[in-house]
Write a structure and sequence with these properties.
Number of strands: 2
Number of domains: 1
CATH topology: MetI-like fold
Radius of gyration: 22 Å
Distance between the termini: 27 Å
Strand order of the largest sheet: 1-2
CATH superfamily: MetI-like
Shape: elongated
Largest sheet: 2 strands, antiparallel
CATH class: Mainly Alpha
Length: 275
């Protein structure tokens, strides 16, 4: 099988299967899940059985059902955050690269100031002040993550902005938005697509980390980081409840990175052939 005109490697196949299974589970959660995400169906930390394939959690809720619903929440929010961060980061990064001068200086210094503060600490402060609602969570992580996208978009955009076809577009009188959308963006897609996968993993893990600390998705909604926190005490009794969502987080991260590595390899190969 080929994807984007290139044959999939074994690693890419594994990554594609992992990502596809997770996406299908998230999309079809209401159909697949035997119980609701907040339904109490048995004893606390009951072991796996025919009725509860992965056992029950700290309140007696079905782990399999909550894993599926948690995928909807965690993956959906991570994807939304990544899209928003790329919209902000690419727009500001390309603006800095194409306009240059004071615009580049102002945007770059602003990004440097934000990046000087550790992201987790910055997020904890903002969420403590403005609350842990989903909109605040999305905007906070997206804006923090957009600084990384800005740096890449600006670096790539600077190389493209000096090309002859961009100068011709300027001489034709094309506006800034047109130049960024029609001239710069298409030529910057390979590294941006690769970065999208990496930024998705970061947003995914960041949401899980905040939820584990109690500042992410709030109960009764399921998310994988919160499930690890809620069931952490099960380890003391020999239970595996916290290991299940932790394994789900690790496996999806590995799957996305396998696809990113494959895309990086074909991009590097194409770049080498072009040179």
């Amino acid at each position: 099988m080929k994807l984007l005109g290139h044959r999939l490697t074994i690693g890419a196949w594994i990554g594609l299967i992992i990502v596809a299974v997770n996406l299908l589970g998230a999309i079809l959660a209401p159909v697949i899940a035997p119980h609701g995400e907040a339904d109490l169906v048995g004893d606390v930390w009951a072991p796996p059985s025919a009725d509860a394939w992965l056992g029950l959690d700290n309140l007696g809720r079905d782990m399999f059902s909550r894993l599926l619903y948690g995928a909807r929440t965690t993956i959906g929010l991570a994807l939304l955050i990544t899209i928003l961060s790329f919209a902000v980061g690419i727009t500001t990064g390309f603006t800095a690269a194409v306009v240059g001068g004071w615009a580049d200086m102002a945007l770059s210094r602003l990004v440097d100031a934000v990046m000087a503060i550790p992201q987790l600490i910055f997020a904890l402060v903002i969420l403590s002040v403005f609350g842990t609602s989903v909109p605040v969570l999305i905007v906070t992580i997206a804006l923090l993550d957009s600084t990384r996208v800005f740096r890449l978009a600006r670096a790539v955009g600077l190389n493209i902005a000096v090309m002859d076809f961009v100068e011709v577009a300027r001489l034709r009188g094309e506006k800034l938005g047109w130049i960024m959308r029609r001239e710069v963006l298409p030529n910057a897609m390979p590294p941006l697509i690769t970065e999208f996968g990496l930024r998705f993993c970061f947003a995914f893990l960041f949401i899980a980390s905040l939820s584990f600390l109690g500042l992410g998705i709030q109960p009764p909604y399921a998310d994988w980081g919160g499930m690890v926190r809620d069931n952490a005490q099960a380890i003391n009794f020999g239970g595996i409840a916290p290991l299940i969502p932790a394994a789900a987080i690790a496996i999806l991260t590995i799957g996305v990175n396998l696809l990113v590595d494959w895309f990086l390899s074909i991009h590097s190969r194409a770049h080498g052939e072009g040179a």
